[in-house]
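Example 3.2
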Amino acid sequence: MTLTVLIIGCGDIGITLGRELLSEGHRVIGVRRHVDALQDTGIEPLALDLNALEDAGASALPEADYVIYTVSADHFEESAYQSAYPEGLKRVLSVMEQHATPPRRVFFVSSTSVYGQQEGEVVNEESPTEPTSFSGTLMCEAEQALINHPLPGTVVRFSGIYGPGRDRLIHQVVEGRIAPVTPVIYSNRIHRNDCTGILAHLIHAQENGQSLANLYLGSDCEPVTMHNVMAWIAKQLNVESTETMQSPLRRRTSKRCDNRRILEAGYQFRYPSYREGYAQVMKEGGFGQAQKA
C-alpha cells in the first residue's frame, strides 16, 4: 500500500527519511520555510512558516497517513525553542485533527536533553525527566502536548546525532583536542541513518499491525565516555592529542541511555555503536585520506 507521509521541518533527517520512503514507493511531502533544499529529492515541497498556522483551517496542511514532526529551532534561545517545539507542534496537531481522515500516527522527534541526570545513571523511557535547560523543558512540554492529544502520537527521543556533515567531533580530534578522562562524561550517540531507520521501522511496524508505545528512546547500543570516543577516533586517524577540552563538558549532563524498548520493537541498528558509525563518517568524509596526504 502506498502511504502519504508528511514531514514537517524537512531538513537533514527529513530528507534522508523521505528518500528512504520514496524508494519504497510511498509519497512524501516535505514542509519547510525555504524549499530549495528539496529540489531533485523527489520529495514534494510545501513552503510554509509554522507561525502561519495559527487559527488555520484543515486546508493549511494536506492529509497524510503519517506525520513526522522534526523541526529545528532557528537559534539556541528560549523564544526560538518555544516557537519551534510546543507552539509549532500544537499548531500542526490543531490542523491535522480537523481533517476528514486524520493521520494514523504523528511522530515527534525529541531529544534526550529532557533528562537531567548527571552521575552516569542509566535512563530509559520510564526514567524521570528533570531537564536543567530551557531546551529540555520546552521539549518536555511538546512531548506532553502530543502524548495527551487525541490523535495517536509517538515521541522518539534521539541522543547525540552524528553522521555525514555532522562531524564536529572528528574535526576536534583532528585538531588534537580530546575530552578529559575525568570528570567522567558519558556520551550517547546515534547515527543519522539510524534515526531515519527507527522512524521508518515504526511506520512499518504500525502498518503490520504492531502496537506502538507513545515513547521510544533512540540511541545506539553502547553508551560510552566522551574521552573513549575521541581516543578511538584519534587512534583510527593516527592523531596525537595535544589539548584537553575542559569546557563546556563540565556543564553537560551525564547519563547512559537504555535502548531496550526500540530493540524489543524489532529495530536492528545499522550502526550499533560509535565504532561502526564513525568509521562510516570518516570514510565518507575522506578523513583517513586527509591524514595520509
